[in-house]
Specification:
The chain has helices at residues 15-25, 64-81, 100-111, 121-127, 150-163, 206-209, 286-299, 348-360; strands spanning 5-11, 31-34, 50-53, 86-88, 91-95, 117-120, 138-142, 146-149, 167-169, 174-178, 184-188, 192-200, 218-227, 242-247, 250-255, 263-267, 307-317, 324-327, 334-338. It has 383 residues and is of the alpha+beta class. It binds flavin-adenine dinucleotide.
């Protein structure tokens, strides 16, 4: 049975939208989640089996309280779902001694009393033989880091949302919304709906649905590589912590073998430029592969065997790399979420909780001041 009036409609049921549907439905709200593609799918930002989760956070120490809540909610979700979604491997954040990937991670651990160890690159290689970092690099090791199964987690959030009464429509495309009266109207290619509050979690498409975000939440094409290691035992979750690594060629991230028979990694920024999610080259090219292989051959030489998979994906970047999580500037009952810039997935459940707070409560107990839309508009490049 389809109701045409809802307490909350969530546009886009990917990583963030699925979590929002769950957190709204468990509060007893009448929720509709509308997704343009399948649930899950490989057209947006959340596919490719795994996503890094870590407590050491060089991006900004104020993410740490949200991470702690996220870890607890991931454990709660997987218990209800009956499948492990969070795998702990430890995490490595490494770079030159004065590089922010190392120093920022170190500072976040010190500030928030997060257990950690510091290794030279030789000590790291002795403990984790897959790693061959430049000899002057330092690595911050944090034992709670690991990865989350991103597509399974979307399924888990949707299953939990449906069990709590949410209605979820896949293969239905949102065309427009209008919040000029007290009730928000949503038009799709299947029909029209009304809602008290609207949550917009359309990922790389958010600039199409919220023109105010088009300049400050900008899609970028990324490519993930999975290569077969010569010594697979050095690249299994038990022996290979997830990493963020700043080297002269750029900033890279990587994960152990899981789900695809290869160790997985990618480069922040990849080949650069901006992307149109409706006209994206989703097929990896030789240039993509060459860029990624040269990194692995240099820093993970025993991991750089035959290519097992290459997959294109989308980041949605803000100029300062922090999320957007706020009410619409003109319509307080419309909530905007662009938690990406390449590091948002690990926060899905806590962002679902925050979006539910903003949609149906006056405020959230979480500190989201870093994510306000009106934070230095200059910094966001909008002036
Ligand atoms: C290659 C890659 C690696 C990453 N690695 C990490 C990592 O290791 N750790 C980490 O924490 N984060 C990582 N991230 C970032 C993280 O994956 C994103 O922050 C997260 O997936 C964003 O989720 P989302 O819900 O905003 O987007 P999505 O999951 O893409 O969801 C948006 C949804 O909106 C739907 N939609 C769009 N338009 C419409 C419409 N008109 N009607 C209906 N539905 C619509 C889309 O189909 C989509 O399902 C990575 C991202 C990429 C691309």
């Amino acid at each position: 049975m389809h109701h045409s009036h809802y307490d909350v409609i969530v546009l886009g049921v990917g990583g963030m939208g699925s979590a929002a549907c769950h957190h709204l439905a468990r509060r007893g709200k009448r929720v509709l989640g509308i997704e343009r593609f399948d649930i899950p799918h490989a057209m947006g930002s959340s596919h490719g089996v795994t996503r890094i989760i870590r407590q050491a956070y060089y991006e900004h120490p104020s993410y740490v309280p949200l991470l702690r809540r996220s870890y607890a909610l991931w454990r709660e979700l997987e218990t209800g779902f009956g499948e492990q979604l969070l795998h702990v491997t430890g995490s490595v954040d490494a770079g030159a001694p004065d590089d922010e990937v190392f120093t920022g991670s170190y500072d976040s651990c010190r500030l928030h009393d997060i257990p950690h160890e510091v290794f030279s690159s030789a000590e790291l290689a002795a403990r984790y033989p897959g790693y061959h970092l430049p000899s002057d690099h330092l690595a911050l090791y944090q034992p709670d880091g690991g990865f989350v199964l991103s597509e399974r987690a979307i399924v888990a959030h949707v299953v939990a949302a449906q069990a709590a009464g949410a209605e979820i429509h896949a293969r239905e495309r949102v065309l427009d919304w209008d919040a000029s009266s007290d009730t928000v109207r949503v038009e799709t290619d299947h029909g029209s709906y009304e809602t008290n509050s609207l949550v917009i979690t359309t990922g790389a498409w958010i600039g199409q649905h919220v023109p105010e975000l088009a300049e400050v939440a900008v899609p970028e094409r990324q490519v993930l590589a999975w290569l077969q290691p010569q010594n697979p035992e050095d690249f299994v979750p038990e022996h290979f912590p997830v990493f963020n690594l700043q080297v002269p060629e750029g900033r890279y991230y990587g994960l152990p073998i899981f789900g695809v028979p290869g160790f997985k990694f990618g480069r922040y920024g990849h080949l650069g430029g901006t992307a149109n999610p409706d006209d994206l080259d989703r097929e990896a090219t030789p240039a993509d592969e060459t860029l990624l292989r040269s990194f692995a051959e240099r820093y993970f030489p025993t991991g750089a065997g035959p290519t097992m998979a290459l997959r294109a994906c989308l980041f949605t970047n803000t100029p300062d790399g922090h999320f957007i999580l706020d009410r619409h500037p003109a319509y307080p009952n419309v909530i905007l979420a662009s938690p990406c810039s390449g590091h948002g997935y690990k926060f899905c459940p806590v962002i679902g909780e925050i979006l539910a707070d903003l949609a149906v409560e006056d405020e959230t107990k979480h500190d989201i001041s870093l994510f306000r839309l009106d934070r230095s508009r200059k910094q966001l490049g909008a002036e």
